[in-house]
Amino acid sequence: MSDPLQSLRERIDTLDQQIQALINERAQCAQEVAQVKTASEGEQTVFYRPEREAQVLRRVMERNTGPLSNEEMARLFREIMSACLALERPIKVAFLGPEGTFTQEAALKHFGHSAVCVSLPAIDEVFREVEAGAADYGVVPVENSTEGVINHTLDSFIDSGLHICGEVVLRIHHHLMIGENTRRDKISRIYSHASSLAQCRKWLDAHYPQAERVAVNSNAEAARLIKSEWHSAAIAGDMAADLYQLQKVAEKIEDCPDNSTRFLIIGNQEVPASQDDKTSIMVSMRNQPGALHDLLEPFRQHQVDLTRVETRPSRSGAWSYVFFIDFRGHTQDSKIQQVLQDVAERASDLKILGAYPKGVL
Question: Comparing C-alpha atoms, which of 270, 266, 269 is closest to residue 138?
């Protein structure tokens, strides 16, 4: 009787050969696409198309029959697409660093590991890098499901001409980790970003109530600091733990089990509709009674789904405010065009920040 395990291994080897051949065939098609684009568009060639990638990934999940999950299958295809795109032209992506942050993880999740990722120390520097053309795209955090909006990101849009080209929603897992010089029962100081300390406050109160909590610029910075310190721990994610070779004392210590952060992809291009899109706008209203009601009324009237409304102080004067609004739909949709026209008639200023594919993964 033949060995059933050997038979399965031979079948897997055959399938691997077929998969490898098909991936290379796809890569060759990508190269041909680049040649056709370059011939017709010249120096203005746009190789990365966010709406096209979103459509491909949605179809991947729609036709998936398992046993791999839709998300896992889409991640595999994301890496294939990333490698193929790099054959056309490598994409350079600036992200809020340092290395090992959740923003880097979001950049890799969206663009794949074949993208060239560059770490920058501040959100406004990410904006400047993309505006100057030194990077094709930037990745910045915009809101956390527990701690709310990142004001610095919203404020950066006030003076920037960049467009929002996409979004990434990342499930955030926080781990308590130590270096080789620290014993878990001797932890007296815990480093992390202020928002991460807040997201883990109840767990820390229960397990390390006496430990000093020290806020630093990023979770990755916290992980780097404890590499050589004594009696210190850090709260950070998997990438930081791997980067600095730290031991996890406790995993998934965030207080809210559905803790997530939303990141924006910023660039210089306007993105066509992908059939499942969001639009972000910035609106300045005249300071008068009922201004907010007047601003939101067109969305109710045309039954447009609002997903976020935030208020920030305006730089035009004291006690003046601008509204950041996200809603479902694309500026190419006739209904959305009517809403924007109605809002523009009521507002003192309207700026479209971008229309982009709704986060796929």
Answer: 266
